[in-house]
Amino acid sequence: MASSLSFEYFFLVIISQSPVKINYLLTGLVNSIEPHHERIIVDTTVQEKAIAHPVDSRLLEIARGKVAQATKRVGITLKQTFAKKGKALRRKAGGYAHARQFRRLRRTVKRQLTMLGIVLREIRRKRSLEHAARTGRANPQATA
Q1: Cα(82)–Cα(62) distance, rounded to whole angstroms?
Q2: Residue 112 in contact with residue 60, Cβ under 8 Å?
Q3: Which one, 22, 24, 30, 136, has least CB within 10 Å?
Q4: What are 126-138's pLDDT values in tens digits?
């Protein structure tokens, strides 16, 4: 006779519950197994996951990439998207953080923020030029 609840279900419940309930759930698992088994082996080791924490350098690089993609989709051509430089700075920032070289890390994050600002300013400028061309104004920079 097979048990009504699978071992995978118990494993998932054990992970999500508090340690107090683990003994109760394991007892339920043992009682639900066929009686002719003399011994049961339960492996309770948990593999730690590689969690990607939201780091400034990563978020800035993602923002720069998404902004560049969105402008390309809309049809605005950028002078620079900083694709290579952004990727390199993200890698450097990870190395500096790992080596606890926080001043260098701060400098690379600051450069990434500057590059994102450059891209955003260029988009703003090109949009205002396009808007001026559509409305027929001669010099859009003079009214700003």
Answers
A1: 12
A2: yes
A3: 136
A4: 999 988 888 887 6
* Angle between the N-to-C axes of helices 83-98 and 56-74, in degrees from 0 to 180, rounded to the nearest 10: 170
Pick from 65, 95, 70: nearest CA to 83: 65
pLDDT mean over 78-107: 95
What is the C-alpha to C-alpha distance for residues 27 and 30, in angstroms, rounded to an integer? 5
Residue 115's closest CA among 94, 89, 77? 89
Backbone torsions φ then ψ of 4, nearest 5 degrees = -75, -30
CB contact set of 71 (below 8 Å; sequence gap of 6+): 77, 78, 123
Count of helices and strands (H, E) across the chain: 5, 0
Pick from 120, 113, 117, 35: nearest CA to 128: 120
* Distance between CA atoms of residues 27 and 21, nearest Å: 10
User: What is the per-residue pLDDT across 15-35, written as a single tens digit (0 to 9) for each?
Assistant: 555 555 666 666 776 677 666
What lies within 8 Å, CB to CB, of 100 at 6+ separation is none
C-alpha closest to that of 32 among 8, 12, 11, 7: 7
